[in-house]
Write a structure and sequence with these properties.
Layout (H helix, E strand, L loop, with lengths): L1 H6 L4 E6 L7 H9 L4 H5 L5 H10 L3 E7 L2 E9 L6 E4 L7 E6 H5 L10 H4 L15 H5 L22 E4 L5 H16 L4 E5 L16 H13 L19 H7 L14 H29 L5 E5 L16 E4 L9 H11 L3 E4 L8 H9 L4 H13 L3 E2 L3 E4 L7 E3 L2 H13 L12 E6 H11 L16 H11 L4 E6 L11 H4 L4 E5 L6 H12 L3 E5 L4 H4 L4 E4 L4 H4 L6 E2 L4 E7 L5 E7 L2 E2 L4 E2 L2 E8 L7 E5 L5 E4 L2 E3 L2 E9 L2 E7 L5
Parallel strand pairs: 1-2, 2-7, 7-8, 8-9, 9-10, 10-11, 14-15, 14-16, 16-17, 17-18
Antiparallel strand pairs: 3-4, 3-5, 3-6, 12-13, 19-24, 20-21, 21-29, 22-23, 24-28, 25-26, 25-29, 27-28
Helix pairs in contact: 2-8, 8-11, 9-11, 14-15
């Protein structure tokens, strides 16, 4: 396995090591340090600590995966004396049937198999009411409005008896348990910690949760902190000292499942949970770093930020590496990657495919038949072109129904990764794009909430819901117009850092349906206009800007209206582009060709492509770099302020570098 990873030029592994803490701490220790029998050794099996050490020998970092939301219970078959596990999860019809998981660990159910809970928590576990805890699941599970425990359905296999409960990080007992998981992973040599399900418990909204005692206590305290004028008028006459949000909603006929966004106090509850995830994610992040330092090393801290929804914005400051699982894995999504790059800022980002609601099941079938190679190439090259890193699947999870895992053909993955690794100097975070599109969190929240309302086992998108931001960015991307995204948080759930200086380098700033602005955002727009910049607004316009004579109106799907200064890049072909500013002052225009011919199972090669590109500064030379390693010198002409080059041919991906002197 490590040899394969070296061939892939791997630098870091995610979702790769020691996830067993969601079953029990003794089970996690067995993963990390447990003995490996001779028969397994014969085939090269190792424990996780040994695997991590082998990765370190080859310069590969490994993150321990903390499944924060998952609390597992598995069927088990045991010896008569309960001193040997004969089968777990995959039962064989032998021995005594029982259950094994978090509940049994916290009640010391198996003293002959597992260390007692007091070994890890000498003072025991005590909840927020001061009561001792002997059932972790009953204590820490997410609960719906009726008090029923919720399950993490996306990981439960429908043809198995096992159960995965949705756990709640707002409960201090669960946080103490997760800290013990972190200790074991770092003791085993993990280079860092990846906190999965980082939005816990907000992901449980899809199940009508959470109304556990700690969420209700926290929300009550949050409301009490608000100025009286800031509390919803619906609470007039309500005693906040004893207020229980769930009971109050039920009395009025709400269940937090149907029409959730219009439920009374939902906005306040959302804001409370955003603050809670920031607080408690930060608590675990700080703890992991402190524990790492106690072992004499600095660790990498990361979290799964799923689709990088705005709820994660406040967490970005707490991580060294941004990881996103992407809600919808498709064959073409340059506009989404531009949002990812904006979210990550100056931090590295790793993108991982999602088995639900996307193309991955189809792609693995194609690859198994020796097909789909260009589609796989697109998935990795696209990410690099638009500001991210797409991970190479190596036994990647395919969800709870498909009994398979995602491997790419070794030669194909090696070919792609070798090119990307050898040409890292042609990939940069900084861009030279003239257009910026503003993603306003407050303005888009309701529409995106409606468009993406399905649960995370389907990840359906309601295309009948028009989200102007999405239409604008897709319109630009489909026309090969390079652009940056500027994210403006609401200032409540995440800090508002909007400034005119951040917009100054763009000739055009597009405001798609930006009807809600903070004071800082308003001043940023005005400052950009005062500095001679162009602002284009679509759909609803913030009232304080609507009368400003410098604002240009546009339809969200009209390319010419969106680009009053014309296209920075004109290809005359169905491409998407991103213009990056390299460290040596050169410019790298990344071009992705999505013209896949299904009958031929290949992307059509475009011949004789003429490019017109406006650059911030003139460059004397141009070179086309393609994934076969060939560098083709081009002869740039000047025409009306643009550099014009002719590409003899372009396949899936190419980089046109505008430079002076020799190309590095």
């Amino acid at each position: 396995m490590v040899d394969d990873l070296v061939d892939f030029r791997a630098t870091v592994l995610v979702w790769a090591s020691m996830g067993g803490g969601s079953l029990s701490l003794p089970y996690l220790e067995q993963e990390a340090f447990g003995p490996v029998d001779a028969r397994s050794r014969f085939y090269g099996f190792v424990n996780d600590a040994e695997f991590i050490a082998a990765c370190h020998e080859r310069g590969i970092k490994v993150l321990g995966i903390v499944f924060e939301a998952q609390g597992w219970e598995f069927p088990v078959e045991l010896s008569e004396d309960e001193d040997e596990v004969l089968a777990i999860n995959e039962l064989r019809g032998v021995g005594k049937r029982d259950w094994m998981g978090l509940r049994e660990f916290s009640s010391n159910r198996y003293p002959k198999l597992w260390k007692p809970v007091e070994h890890y928590f000498p003072e025991g576990l005590v909840n927020s009411d001061g009561e001792p805890v002997t059932d972790l699941i009953d204590e820490c599970v997410v609960r719906d409005i009726h008090g029923e425990p919720c399950h993490a359905h996306w990981v439960e296999c429908p043809d198995r008896e096992h159960q995965c409960y949705y756990m709640d990080r707002n409960n201090p007992v669960w946080r103490e348990y997760l800290k013990a998981v972190i200790r074991i992973q770092l003791d085993a040599g993990a280079d860092g910690i990846q906190l999965d399900e980082a939005e816990l418990p907000m992901g449980a909204f899809q199940y009508g949760a959470c109304f556990c005692k700690d969420c209700m206590k926290g929300f009550r305290a949050y409301l009490q902190e608000l100025r009286p004028s800031a509390v919803d008028v619906a609470l007039d006459g309500v005693d906040l000292a004893t207020f229980h949000y769930g009971e109050w909603l039920l009395e009025q006929g709400y269940d937090f499942k149907e029409g959730r966004e219009s439920t009374p106090l939902f906005g306040d509850y959302y804001a409370f949970q955003c603050r809670a995830i920031k607080t408690y994610f930060g608590e675990l992040a700080d703890y992991a770093r402190e524990y790492g330092r106690s072992l004499g090393r600095e660790i990498i801290l990361s979290g799964n930020f799923f689709n990088l929804e705005p709820m994660y914005l406040a967490l970005a400051d707490d991580v060294d590496l941004v990881i996103t699982e992407m809600r919808n894995t498709t064959y073409q999504q340059p506009e989404w990657y531009r949002y990812v790059a904006a979210f990550a800022g100056d931090k590295d980002v790793v993108v991982v495919e999602n088995p639900y609601g996307g193309v991955v099941p189809e792609l693995i079938e194609l690859l198994a038949e020796g097909k789909g190679h260009d589609l796989f190439r697109l998935s990795l090259f696209e990410a690099a072109a638009f500001g991210a890193n797409m991970s190479v699947p190596y036994g990647s999870w395919m969800g709870s129904v498909i009994e398979d895992s995602f491997y790419a053909p070794h030669g194909l993955a090696t070919e792609i990764q070798a090119f990307l690794a050898d040409h890292e100097h042609l990939v940069a975070r900084s861009t030279a794009n003239e257009v910026a599109v503003v993603y306003s969190v407050e303005s888009t929240r309701e529409l995106i909430g409606k468009a993406d309302a399905s649960d995370n086992t389907t990840n359906l998108r309601d295309e009948s819901v028009v989200v102007p931001y999405r239409v604008v960015t897709k319109t630009l991307a489909d026309a090969a117009v390079p652009f940056d995204v500027v994210i403006w948080p609401d200032g409540v759930t995440a800090p508002d850092r909007a400034t005119a200086e951040a917009l100054a380098r763009y000739s055009t700033v597009v405001l798609p349906d930006v009807h809600a602005l903070t004071e800082a955002q308003l001043q940023a727009v005005r400052g950009h206009l005062d500095g001679g910049g162009t602002v284009v607004a679509t759909d609803r316009v913030a009232e304080r800007l609507s009368s400003h004579e410098g604002i240009r109106a546009a339809r969200h799907d009209d390319l010419d209206e969106l680009l009053p200064h014309g296209r920075q890049v004109d290809t005359g072909a169905a491409l998407s582009s991103n213009l990056q500013q390299l460290a040596d002052g050169s410019y790298a225009l990344h071009l992705v060709n999505y013209d896949y011919d299904r009958s031929a199972d290949a992307v059509r090669v475009l011949d004789d492509v003429v490019l017109r590109v406006r650059l911030p500064k003139d460059r004397a030379q141009a070179t086309l770099v393609t994934p076969d390693g060939v560098r083709t010198p081009l002869a740039p002409d000047r025409d009306a302020g643009a550099h014009v080059v002719r590409l003899p041919a372009l396949g899936v991906y190419g980089i046109v570098v505008f430079h002076d002197g020799d190309l590095a």
